[in-house]
Design brief:
The chain is of the alpha/beta class. The chain has helices at residues 18-30, 53-56, 95-105, 124-134, 166-172, 196-202; strands at residues 36-40, 62-66, 70-75, 83-87, 108-112, 139-141, 146-148, 158-160, 181-183. 25% of the residues lie in helices and 18% in strands. The protein has a four-stranded mixed beta sheet, covered by helices on one side. Strands 1-3-2 form a three-stranded antiparallel beta sheet, covered by helices on one side. A two-stranded parallel ribbon has the order 8-9.
Length: 210
């Protein structure tokens, strides 16, 4: 038997999950002009549907700079779009984040292509309607769309229910930049992003376990 052929050393870079990046897009969108966050292992020509974030969040004042295996999110002083229409049929997992971002910015949105959200961990459309309404959001949903009207008021000290859905917890977390909030069953993030709350603390969010 001949010896095995030697295999040259090879470095493979596995792209990170773009839906996880959405929460940091939301944070930058809600932050002051000039805020920057860099995230590793992302590429410009991604095959992930959720990479559409880099285009969508331009409407919310966030530019994306692509480096070698990383992206940098930058909050600009670009005027926000008051009405935002997005078809998310190819990226439904970022709908929660976009809806919360729009509410935090006080702008409206109409999201379509959301029929699969009813069969996720929870009926995410109903959950969004219920939880954003707690904050005073003028929201309405159908079985495949979500409409949020422009508004400026945000209720204080709201408790967010997560419905055993990791994305509910993470999508609503950036609203802590606008109001105090509590998240029930916050450890549900362990389904996809166990270090989420630790990473928020690194960004100077105050995270307290009750």
């Amino acid at each position: 038997m001949s010896p095995a052929a030697s295999v040259p050393d090879t470095t493979l870079v596995v792209e990170s999950d773009w839906s996880s990046a959405s929460y940091f897009y939301s944070i930058v969108a809600l932050a002051k002009v000039g805020t920057k966050i860099s995230l590793s292992s992302y590429k410009h020509n991604s095959l992930q549907g959720d990479s559409v974030l880099s285009d969508i969040y331009k409407s919310f004042g966030v530019d994306t700079e692509f480096g070698e295996h990383e992206i940098t999110l930058i909050k600009t002083d670009r005027k926000l779009s008051i009405e935002n229409n997005f078809d998310l049929a190819n990226a439904p997992d970022i709908a929660q984040t976009i809806a919360v971002t729009c509410f935090g910015l006080g702008v409206g949105c109409h999201l379509t292509g959301l029929h699969t959200l009813k069969i996720k961990e929870t009926d995410r459309l109903v959950a969004l309607d219920t939880e954003l309404s707690k904050f005073g959001a003028p929201i309405s949903v159908t079985d495949k769309t979500l409409t949020l009207l422009e508004s400026e008021h945000i209720n204080l000290e709201v408790t967010v229910d997560t419905y055993n859905d990791h994305r509910m917890a993470m999508a609503f977390a950036p609203l802590a930049m606008k109001t105090s909030l509590f998240v029930n069953d916050a450890e549900v993030v362990s389904k996809s992003y166990p270090d989420f709350w630790n990473d928020l603390e690194q960004l100077h969010f105050k995270v307290t376990e009750l």
